[in-house]
Specification:
By secondary structure, this protein is of the alpha+beta class. It has helices at 10-26, 35-46, and strands at 51-53, 56-59, 63-64, 70-76, 86-93, 100-105, 113-119, 125-133, 138-147. The strands form two sheets. Strands 1, 3, 5, 6, 8 and 9 form a six-stranded mixed sheet that branches. A three-stranded antiparallel sheet has the order 2-4-7, with no helix packed on it.
Length: 154
């Protein structure tokens, strides 16, 4: 057999370079976050402010049979008046590619500080929920979810 060497066209070479560049850009992001990454994200938001426990009810399953759809329910104890309300709630996971999962903003007009969603968990990990009150106080809840089948490619 006689093989002929074929040089790539300019378009093929540019496409290959773009794919290689995209892979180099995404590769570091494919690493999983850890407790230090979650702590860094929280520090970016709130510095070294003291976190109190209580007031935040974080309802997640202890064991998630499928990490693709893990339900999460958050409820923060607050009168939700003009002078005393929940401003924001942030949820973090220390085993996903990015530590921040979801953030919610609230106003007194909401009447109740609660939210529900589903999240994808790659592996067994801690879920951290921070509630920021209108007076600047921070409340935290933390729960560990054991994932038997990963939702982010695991």
């Amino acid at each position: 057999m006689n093989f002929k060497q074929v040089e790539p066209t300019r378009r093929e070479a540019l496409t290959l370079a773009a794919v290689a560049g995209l892979a180099a850009f995404l590769a570091p992001k494919m690493l999983l976050a850890d407790e230090a990454a979650v702590a860094a994200e929280i520090k970016k938001l709130y510095g070294d402010k003291k976190m109190e426990s209580g007031k935040v009810k974080l309802d997640v399953p202890e064991i998630a049979e499928n990490g693709l759809v893990v339900p999460i329910n958050i409820e923060v104890e607050s009168p939700m008046t003009d002078s005393d309300y929940v401003k924001a709630v942030h949820v973090f996971a220390d085993g996903n590619p990015l530590p921040g999962v979801v953030s919610y903003k609230f106003t007194p007009a909401c009447g109740k500080a609660s939210a529900s969603t589903r999240m994808r968990l790659a592996q067994t990990q801690n879920i951290v929920c921070i509630a920021e009150m209108s007076n600047g106080n921070l409340h935290m809840a933390k729960s560990n979810v054991k994932v038997t089948i990963g939702g982010c490619g695991g």
